[in-house]
Amino acid sequence: MEILRRAFAAEWTKLWSLRSTWWTLAGAFALMAAMAFTLATSTVHNNTNDVPGDDLGVVVASETAVGAVDLVQFVVLTLAILTITAEYATGSIGTTLRWAPRRGVVLLAKSAVLAAVAFPTGMLLGLLGTAVAAPLLGGWGRFSVGGTLADSAAIGVYLALTSVLVLGIGTLLRSTAGAVTTVFLFLMALPMLIDGSSTALGRWVSDALPSSAGRHFMNGGGDSYGPAAGLALLAVWTAVFLVGARTALRRRDA
């Protein structure tokens, strides 16, 4: 336990000592504000134009922030990827593993640090998105403190789990460009391509992917399954990639 505590402290210090951490998080908040503004004004426009088919009706302000996560998440996930791939790029991973030779402990410490950062970041992103969207929506938006806190917490949980998942991908690939590309394809492009399929198998595969599971969780469920099942499925995906990363880290040279 002492080894894990020291490893966590070391990873925490490394993360916050990098300028890229601060710039990346600032970028995430800026993008959330921009996306919430765009989605809210688009909702108002669709509800007030002369095309009845565009009408969205009254929406929940905090759900605008949830919708923005589809894009904003990639800024936060890039930070998660860099926590491991940057060390491979600079060669400092060798020093890290010599200092803490139990490689599983290193991966666990990195995972804990990412979750500890991503969860409150997600909550704050949700609160920011809601704060931007609510006044813009006006009469076309509903706001409640309880709903906002619940949606913001859901964003935090989603980003915490997904950050650990992409840490696993980064550990497996050991390349920033490769990991970022893979994460984008896996979490956005692939679900969109498969979701366009008219077959039952295509819809089943799309629903089983981690991004779909996270969406079901944050949106309070869907036609295929509820939020609890979405959270459980996302947790399973995260565990699978984390176990794969641990195995690869133990078997390969730094």
Automatic annotation (TrEMBL):
Signal peptide interval: none
Presence of the UniProt keyword Iron in the record: no
Presence of the UniProt keyword Transmembrane in the record: yes
Transmembrane segments: 21-44, 64-86, 107-133, 153-173, 185-205, 225-245
Keyword terms of this UniProt record: Membrane, Transmembrane, Transmembrane helix
Origin superkingdom: Bacteria
Protein name: ABC transporter permease
Annotated organism of origin: Actinomadura namibiensis
